[in-house]
Each structure stands twice: as C-alpha cells, then as structure tokens.
UniProtKB/TrEMBL annotation:
This is Release factor glutamine methyltransferase. The gene is prmC. Substrate binds at residues 225-228. GO terms for molecular function: nucleic acid binding; peptide chain release factor N(5)-glutamine methyltransferase activity. It comes from Alteriqipengyuania lutimaris. S-adenosyl-L-methionine binds at residues 155-159, 178, 207, 225. Methylates the class 1 translation termination release factors RF1/PrfA and RF2/PrfB on the glutamine residue of the universally conserved GGQ motif. Its EC number is 2.1.1.297. The lineage of its organism: Bacteria, Pseudomonadati, Pseudomonadota, Alphaproteobacteria, Sphingomonadales. PROSITE patterns: N6_MTASE (PS00092). The keyword S-adenosyl-L-methionine applies. It catalyses: L-glutaminyl-[peptide chain release factor] + S-adenosyl-L-methionine = N(5)-methyl-L-glutaminyl-[peptide chain release factor] + S-adenosyl-L-homocysteine + H(+).
Amino acid sequence: MQNLDGVLEDLSLALANAPDRWAAARPTTPRPPPLKRRGSVGDSIRDGADLLAASSDTPRLDAELLMGYALGLSRSDMLLRAMRDDAPATFDPLVERRAAHEPVAYITGSAEFYGLELKVTPAVLIPRGDSETLIAAARDYFATRKAPQRILDLGTGSGALLLAALSQWPEAEGVGLDASMPALRVAQCNATTLGLAERTRFLRRSWRRDGWRRDLGQFDLVLCNPPYVEDDAPLDPCVRDHEPGSALFAGAEGLDDYRILLPQIAHLLTKDAIAIFEIGATQQDAVSGIARNQGLAPRFCNDLAKRPRAMIVSQSF
C-alpha cells in the first residue's frame, strides 16, 4: 500500500483553496474570566467544572479530561492516584480555552472512536459516538457472511471509520478518500500509529469533481459520513466556530452530497457488497427517497438514542 507522499493529487478540490465561507459569520466569543485555581488537582477540577458549567453540557468530564492531559495521565489514573497532588499551572489556560467553546478534542489533540485513540486537529471532524453506528451495522451484516476484503471510506477525515473497520477485519485492506490534504495527513498519521498503514491507501479526491472513481475498482464495504448539515442550521459554537465547515454543510436541505453519491454508489460495489451512509436524525425519509430513485432499497439502523443514523444500501437487497 502506498504512503500519503504518493497520493494522487490530480483531482484537487476547490474547497481546499477557497476561504472558509463561515469565517466571516463567526461571532467573536468573549474571553471567560480567569480561573481561580486552588491548590490540589481535585480542587482545581471542581473550580474548572464550575467555570465550564455555562459553556459545556459535561463540565466535570471536560475538566477531568483537561487535567489528565495537563498531568500527562489517563483520566482513570489521575482519578485513582493524583487527586491530592498539586495542580499544574498549565491547567488554567486549558480550561479557559474550553470555556471559550474550543472542543476538548482539539485542545488535547486526540479523540476515542470504537476503542481506538485517534489524533485529531481542526482539519478534521471530531469522531462522534453516533458514527460508531456504521461500524456496528457493518459488523452485523458481515457476521453471517464472508468478511470484507476491500473497504472504502468516502470522506475519511481522521480515518476513524476506515481504521475502525480494518481493526475488525484483519485480512481486509482499505482506501480512504478525502478532498483535504491536511485531513489526509491526519488519517495517515493515525494509520501509522495504529499499525494499519500497510493495509491502507489514502487518496486526495473529491466526489464533486468528474472522474473521482477512476481506478478505484469495487469494494465489499463502503463507509461514508458525508456533510449533511443544512447551511443555515443553528449549531453549538464549539462546532460552528471550530470544526471544518466543508465537512459539515451540504446545501439548504443538507442533502447535496447524497444526491451526488447515491447515483454512483453501485459502480463501487461488488455483487453482495453494502454501502453504509451516516444520516442526520431527521433525514430518513428524504435520503430514502434519493436512494429509491436510484433503484436501491435502503435499510436503516438506529443510534443509541434510537434515532435513524445509518442507511445501508446494496444491489442485492
């Protein structure tokens, strides 16, 4: 498998060179008041959680994760053996960044997905638990079938979906496509760190450009978490102001990328293959209609909140 230095760059994405269309609309977030830190790790976590209560739904967890990062310890190790230690001075600015709505994952540079520790930067979406529904759906499908040998991840970002899938099927090889070179660098780094680089190939391609399927061949499993947020959707500031808009927004209805991909997906599938798309919680009917118009019979899997999150399509259903 080739490394990132050898990726195909013949299909560059206009988005990669365009200014962030949301930058001008981003409000300036007032700086939070300085943290009044107490002496111990435990006291400082409590103070940090108090400061974060106004800006986070999980203030205590955020404070614990940031303290663990400042100490260079896992959260569990910190809770077990460091709560009475002196708190490091580096904790205060981390909490202040979080209070200004910067995501914890970007502050610490890492996020967990399906049991994998992944590097993340502002060049990629932060992997979320909802997306694990796609891996669970794939495992269920292949539990009674021959394991997939070739896996494709469309819009790979950090590589979360592809690398999680490869960790489940040790004989499989995978290809990850993304229009963003910075995102591909993150994905390649994660593949290397996880010992999966020899089974992965990352290519810079945009499905918004003609010829993006050239030389890809067919796959037993295609995974895709496309942009699916409406352009004017209200978002939490930690998402709106920090995560890449090109990986979030997909037109007035949030359906632009499904309309591009679903008419082409059959060309990428082997006879008994499946493609699994992440969808928004209210998009089941709309995305199902797009799929059915292409002669596909979609099936849906719910996330842990019982909302439709994964759409499975196949030529053999």
